[in-house]
Amino acid sequence: xxxxxxxxxxxxxxxxxxxxxxxxxxxxxxxxxxxxxxxxxxxxxxxxxxxxxxxxxxxxxxxxxxxxxxxxxxxxxxxxxxxxxxxxxxxxxxxxxxxxxxxxxxxxxxxxxxxxxxxxxxxxxxxxxxxxxxxx
Length: 136
Known about the structure:
Blueprint: H1 2-40, H2 52-60, H3 79-93, H4 100-107, H5 111-121, E1 123-125, E2 132-134
Antiparallel strand pairs: 1-2
Helix pairs in contact: 1-2, 3-4, 3-5, 4-5
């Protein structure tokens, strides 16, 4: 009795394994055709696939969705927002000060955007790459 249940379960698992292997082969074939198309400079289409492999690929593909506006790297930041972020980082650096590049990285501000704001708002000591900014 237990032996029959085990045999049936093994048969079911083997069938599932065969199906999963077929899916994997279909996926690898599609990826290979896309790579070959990229190398040759031609476009590949999923409609050119035939049979059950095309059905698997169409059902598993997810549409592309661009990042939300707030997640974009180049979004505009106001002077007040940039100053607020940089002030926190410069204050945390203490009397030793911090370079504009390091402050921009820690604050998540573009370096070229941080330079004029830091020159106006903080005390600057040193020259060149040894320039350090501290709170006024």
